Amino acid sequence: MLKVEHVSAGYGAVDVLHDVSFVVPEREIVTILGANGAGKTTLMRVLTGLIKTRQGSITLQGQQIESWSPERRVKKGLALVPEGRELFPSLTVYENLLMGAFTRASRQEREETLERVLKYFPRLKERLHAYAASLSGGEGQMVAIGRALMAHPRVLLLDEPSLGLAPVVVDTVFDAIARLNVDEGLTIILVEQNARRALRIARKAYVLRGGTIAMEGTTRELASSAAIQQLYLGG
To answer: Is-contact 133 90, C-beta < 8 A?
Structure first.
């Protein structure tokens, strides 16, 4: 579904990512682990076109997209749930969700998609006309994921979805991610500091360290790695 080959990128004259390569198979969940400053959010921005690559290629469903605009990537099937949610606080939940459907021409199609989103996050049905500024952290994260789903993505990029959430809310969010993968056939790239939960839900994992891929393997292999246990699992 998605292939990243020898990508380097950064800000100004400074590279943050160095020769990064990885593959995301269709209909699978792949997690990218790493400490703060490892380059995880930069990688998400590169995949969505918010930051241009300096070198390397990004291939989505057989097409090279590194020169494409963010809007064109969304239309092709890439949708990002950004770190920190980035909702519009003065808009309602309903209005925030519709912001994700800007590529959908038919209002009827938008309403049908909204019903599917509310199936995964029924709490939002009760809060549909509440302002985003009044939401709890968990509700805000549900809106952020729902907004991305409104674009009908083939690949869903999740940047730190558990950040700042209570454990019970983390369970709800991760359960929804797993269901979206199974029920909707979504390919998911999960960037997450909660390595234990990420390794439980994904099939393959990459470890980003200093802007490079330092380790890779199945989640079972990495979960049993002494280095991973020491660095990320408290072992």
So the answer is: yes
Quick check: 34 pLDDT over 60?
Answer: yes
Look at the alpha carbons of 120, 126, 127, 129 in this order and tell me if their dihedral is positive or negative: positive
CA-based nearest residue to 26, from 69, 73, 72, 59: 59
Domain count, the chain: 1
Does some domain include residue 120?
Answer: no
Within a domain: residue 200?
A: yes
CA distances from 158 to 127, 191, 198, 227 (A): 23, 6, 11, 25
Pair of tokens at residue 160: 């730190």
Instruction: Supply the pLDDT for residue 104.
Output: 63
Q: Which amino acid is at 219?
A: T
Name the helix (H) or strand (E) containing 226.
Answer: helix 226-232
Residue 224's pLDDT is what?
A: 82
